[in-house]
Amino acid sequence: MPQTFLGDLSKSKFFDILKPLLSARTTGKLFIKSKEDAELYLSDGSIVHARTLHSLGQNAFFMMMSWETGRILYDSDAHFQEKTIDIPTEQLLLNWSYEKPHFEKIKEVIPSKDAIFHLSLLKNPEDKSITTDQWNVLALCNGVRTVSELIHALKWDEFKMLDTIYQLVQSGLIEKAEAQKPLNKKLIGKDFFRRLEGELRKVLGPISPLIIQKKLTELGETEDSFSSDLALSFIKAVGEEVPDEQAQEQFKKEAIKFFSTGKQ
Q1: Which contiguous run of DSSP H or E holds residue 30?
Q2: In what order do the strands lie in the sheet with 46-51?
Q3: How far is CA 27 from CA 3, 12, 258, 264, in A?
């Protein structure tokens, strides 16, 4: 059975999309297609497995509940292969209600995984004690690495990293740095987006401009300032909005072709 589109996190909260499936005691798999893909399995209305790129189990579920962008797809024929959540779903949701205020505070300090932090000058001369985890993060916060790169370097769960960075900021040991802008950024030009829209219209029709604009918004980019270095990853992201796999591959093939032939 093909995947069913359930909703968009830019318009609906994840729990509002999930709640009817829990009430109906559904079994199946939810896909979240965003900047990173995620999956969540239901068994007879219970959440039994959750996975994001850098989190598993309860922490992965917490990350999903905090996301504000992404498309939710559902496959009723899928069955879970591993169980990473052993507690009852009622307890899981209760745990989230306790953690939600903390997640909101973390988001104020770390708005995205592209954020960069560096050591700050200590304004308070008193000695500070830090944990081993905090020390490991301090050692890598050089004003160049992004949060995503820190997660990859230490091979940590995403929530563990976000929480540790938050603790260090609150302690005054690190502070957010401005991201380094590339000096010679080659812009791709608006013609790229018009041609991309033309290809997308062949498979998705009149909603194509909205899809492209949504993807630009998710990346925090505009047509006027879009770097050509991001073109291939953008084509891939837009292509994932096409539900039919064969049509998706054809779209990406044609888009990559005109991008490659159009490069100087």
Answers
A1: strand 28-33
A2: 4-8, 71-75, 28-33, 37-43, 46-51
A3: 14, 22, 42, 51
Q: Which stretches of the chain are assigned E, i.e. beta strand?
A: 4-8, 28-33, 37-43, 46-51, 71-75, 116-119, 142-146, 174-177
Mean pLDDT of the chain: 88
Range of lowest pLDDT (133-137, 181-185, 230-234): 181-185
Residues 6+ apart with CB under 8 A from 219: 35, 230, 234, 237
SS percent in the chain: helix, strand, coil, step 5: 50, 15, 35
- Residue 46's SS3 state is strand
What pLDDT, on the 0 to 100 scale, is given for residue 229? 80
3-state secondary structure of 55: coil
User: How wide is the angle at C-alpha 125 spanned by C-alphas 119 and 128, nearest 5°?
Assistant: 65
The rounded distance, in Å, linking the Cα atoms of 67 and 69 is 6
DSSP 73-86: EEETT---S-----
pLDDT digits (tens, 9 = 90+) for 130-172: 899 999 999 999 888 999 999 989 999 999 999 999 999 998 8
CA–CA gap between residue 112 and residue 36 (Å, rounded)? 12
Q: How many Å apart are CA 64 and CA 32, to the nearest integer? A: 8
The β-bridge partners of 43 are: 46
User: Residue 182 gets which letter from DSSP?
Assistant: P
CB 187 within 8 A of CB 225: yes
Classify the phi-psi angles of 85: left when phi > 0, otherwise alpha if psi is within -120 to 50, otherwise beta.
Answer: beta
Q: 215, 194, 197, 204: which is closest to 248 by C-alpha?
A: 204
Give the span between the Cα atoms of 171 and 48, in whole angstroms. Answer: 36
Confidence of residue 264 (pLDDT cuts 50, 70, 90): very low
